[in-house]
Amino acid sequence: MTAPPRVLLGIGGGIAAYKACELLRLLTESGCDVQPLPTDSALRFVGAATWEALSGHPVATDVWTAVPDVPHVRLGRNADLVVVAPATADLLAKAAHGRADDLLTATLLTARCPLLYAPAMHTEMWDHPATRDNVATLRRRGAIVLDPAVGRLTGADSGPGRLPEPAEIADLAQLLLARPDALPRDLAGVRVLISAGGTREPLDPVRFFGNRSSGRQGYALARVAAARGATVSVVAANVALPDPAGARMLRAGTAEQLHEAMLGAAADADVIVMAAAVADFRPRDARQHKIKKDGGDPDPVVLARNPDILTELVRSRRTGQIVVGFAAETGDAEGDVVAHGRAKLARKGCDLLVVNAVGDGRAFEVGTNEAVILAADGTSVEVTHGPKARLAAAILDAVSARLGERAG
Ligand code: C5P
């Protein structure tokens, strides 16, 4: 049996410390051995007993406990990943300046594994030039500093500064454990537009034609792209998941609305990813009133064709813009999944096509995926079964390589 991945969870003294309990839980449930490292002020929000009970490890905040063991060196050297959540303005400042006046900050200097900071603070503190500089310093040194989510903060105010959702942080933590190099800051300044979810085409005020896409793959792409520095916009079609932190969110219900939103936002994008599952047809005349079983409506389901958004995006793309499509395939007598994918890539004219094998409970509504990323230049990359964030990282690697080629 292989040893569980060792994760250090640094917890800063902010009210969002209570959310780190859920993060700790998610990490331990996914098989990690997690050592919590709260600061003294974090313990004012959530006591040591909670961290110890949830992790199965004693906690200390200073370097004077268990001195012969030299804990800050042992912990840092042995860690596979450090996650700091919430990363307060004070913790970011200390980390940026290499301060080491407690066990957490001292350990941040001894760790050589990936460092993932999830900030949480009031908007003014996040926006302050001092914090911005500290974040830039940490990122320059290779640490991953997420952008905070936008929303309700402590008290009645709201804005950027919320801790990204624990599930989102856990997702990125898992990605870094699987692939420590998965979150380079290679997309800084790149504008990425992603469609996610599945369209719903109303038949009457109660019913619709829909599909089983949950939006998980699109949101994983948004999350990973944002963590890699991209400016991310998401057009979400019927997604019941928390918004990915740091992304600008637009909503669409039907294929026609998605069409309008994507074409409207496309001009400002360097990269477009059509991860949404779009209905090819819609009921031609959605009824104003609920269709009755024996209401005499002779043919309530007459279909009209929806626009092929991906094809239109390809047709209207700017020079240098990269367009990525998805294809859910099952394979049939005419050809296997990849053969169908190649034909579709040629038909749609996009730069990359991510071909998923679907059916038998695969891909839809689950956290995992496997795919082949086909490129217009004839190359392909196979991504084995794993978390959707890992496929997202592989797609963005392919995008990043092409952006590099076009730039230079
Ligand atoms: O045509 P097909 O549905 O097989 O292709 C899937 C790809 O095309 C996906 O990227 C999907 O988002 C996109 N698509 C679209 N508009 C449609 C149907 C699919 O953009 N009407």
How would you sum up this structure in a few lines?
The protein has 408 residues and is an alpha/beta fold.
Supply database-style keywords.
408 residues; alpha/beta; Rossmann fold; 2 domains; 14 helices; 36% helix; 24% strand; binds cytidine-5'-monophosphate
Verbal overview:
With 408 residues, the chain is an alpha/beta fold. It folds into two domains: 6-178, Flavin prenyltransferase-like (Rossmann fold, 3-Layer(aba) Sandwich), CATH 3.40.50.1950; 191-407, CoaB-like (Rossmann fold). Helix content is 36%, strand content 24%. It has 14 helices and 19 strands. The strands form five sheets. An eight-stranded mixed beta sheet has the order 12-11-8-13-16-17-18-19, with helices on both faces. Strands 2-1-3-4-5 form a five-stranded parallel beta sheet, with helices on both faces. Strands 6-7 form a two-stranded antiparallel ribbon. α4 crosses α6. The model has no long low-confidence stretch (mean pLDDT 94). The chain binds cytidine-5'-monophosphate. Residues 255, 274, 276, 278, 280, 306, 308-310, 325-327, 344 line the site of cytidine-5'-monophosphate.
